[in-house]
Write a structure and sequence with these properties.
Blueprint (H helix, E strand, L loop, with lengths): L1 E5 L2 E8 L8 E4 L22 E4 L16 H14 L5 E6 L1 H12 L4 E7 L8 H14 L5 H8 L10 H11 L3 H13 L3 H4 L6 E6 L7 H10 L4 E5 L6 H4 L1 H15 L3
Parallel strand pairs: 3-4, 3-5, 5-6, 6-7, 7-8
Antiparallel strand pairs: 1-2, 2-4
Helix pairs in contact: 1-2, 3-6
Keywords: Hydrolase
Protein name: 3-oxoadipate enol-lactonase
EC number: 3.1.1.24
Amino acid sequence: MQFVHINGVAIHYDASYAESGRPAIVFINSLGTDRRIWHHVLPKLAGDFTLVTYDKRGHGLSDLGQPPYSIELLAQDLAALIDHLELSQVVLVGLSVGGLIAQGLYDARPDLVKAMVLSNTAHKIGTAESWQKRIAAVEQGGIASILDSVMERWFTPPFRVPENAAYQGYCNMLVRQSASGYTGTCAAIRDADFTQAATRIAVPVLCIAGEQDGSTPPELVKSTADLIPGARYEIIENVAHIPCVEAPAVHAALVRGFVEQLDKE
């Protein structure tokens, strides 16, 4: 395990290096998860790319800091981690709130970004009212009180069966998440709007949607791709909000193909 102090908090991360000359790929996980959601994607890219995963503040083994957060702060954390690792011109792969963090990083530090994969995310996610309602529910009843509704958005029905041990594991990941870190990140999503900033993105972007995603439906992801000049759009069938768990081979193949294409442009 690797840790570094960034902006007053200890950040947990992992970096595996490859001497391929290709850009490093930095993965940014979703709300209520940690870097382990990329567990089945990383081996399909290892050896060919330098790979970085990390736990954003308030998640996993990283410090809580002082919630509520902003996307700008979470992007500053990531920029500092990339600087710490002496990387530049990286490919960001952001899932859900991770995609907002990726857009925030590009907006603040475009020098660090070569390209972006915006997976199951959008220029704006939800409404202020919907996020306030979720924050209130967690503050009143804890994360366990929203578990079933969240899992219905995260995974398709075939994945959400009692005999699937992985499903129970991801339920555990969510309910063991810091409630303050969770609601603090909900506040960051609530306040984030990259509708105008998306039109100014000038690096290659791949937008990925899950066919059955209940959090960021395909039409929302497509609307983001339509805002970004030249963005590609792909949909993964038979998955919901976290395709890197339900279809890691497909997700990894899309990322690989996109990054390899950068070498040809």
